[in-house]
Amino acid sequence: MEQYVKELQAEMNEALNRISKESANKLQKAEKSCQAVQDLLTRLKEYVIANPLNGLADEILFFKEIKPAFLSELIFRREVYYLEANLPPGPPELVTGYLTGELERIRIYFQRNLSLYNYHRAVRSDQDHLLFAKNPDPGIFVSECAVEFDPRFCTVPSFKLSKIMAFERLNKYVHRLLDPAWTEPNEEEIHEEKVAPWTDSKVSLIELAYAIHSNSSIDHGKADVKQIVAQLQRAFNVDLGNYYAVFQQNIRIRKKNRTTYLDQLRESLIRRMDDADENPKYYQ
């Protein structure tokens, strides 16, 4: 398979380079690119069906690396086509509003798939056997769209990874439409901006989110729980999962103390203030 995949990748690169040089029309270029990559994906599928994957190592290699290399290219080219086709004519502020909305759509997709997105960004491999086997645990991911699904050639995590990879490229594409001088932050800048992760339990953060909502502390009470949870997830780089179920089936029905974490916060703060009263020089 390795040699065949290399030949297909070389064909893809050659075709995309040729299309890029043939036309300056963005829509035409994107449309031709989609067709070229789709044809190669069809050939790859035919090859895999005729030569079934042999064992877990082959499955991980195919669904984590080989197929996403082609599928992410197709998704990216399709997204560019739709973006350019729907780019509104008119004043710059209208275009800026549209592109800003596209960036928000990308951000939401990353947020909804935060676990896999972070797994990909961290270049992890420890869960590959769960994520990229031919028949992964169905409880890990739920398919998000009604696409042709052939288990010999498709898995949901592989599709989602491909879309994440495509959206990473689309994010850069949109940023550069907004600002041609835009450059991606370097590793040093990313490190400086890195947010300290949440290290307490997720249940505690969900309890805090509902407390903030109940107290109308965000946007004069106009923000709903979903918005507050989304902000906390971004702020602390954590995925809170089905927070509503946690609140209804865990926090709300506690027998002894319904506000365990909030009470703990209160006690910790009072203890700190008491310590500050006794040792003021340590709390300047």
UniProtKB/TrEMBL annotation:
<keyword id="KW-0175">Coiled coil</keyword>
<feature type="coiled-coil region">
    <location>
        <begin position="5"/>
        <end position="47"/>
    </location>
</feature>
<protein>
    <submittedName>
        <fullName>RteC domain-containing protein</fullName>
    </submittedName>
</protein>
<dbReference type="InterPro" id="IPR018534">
    <property type="entry name" value="Tet_reg_excision_RteC"/>
</dbReference>
<dbReference type="Pfam" id="PF09357">
    <property type="entry name" value="RteC"/>
</dbReference>
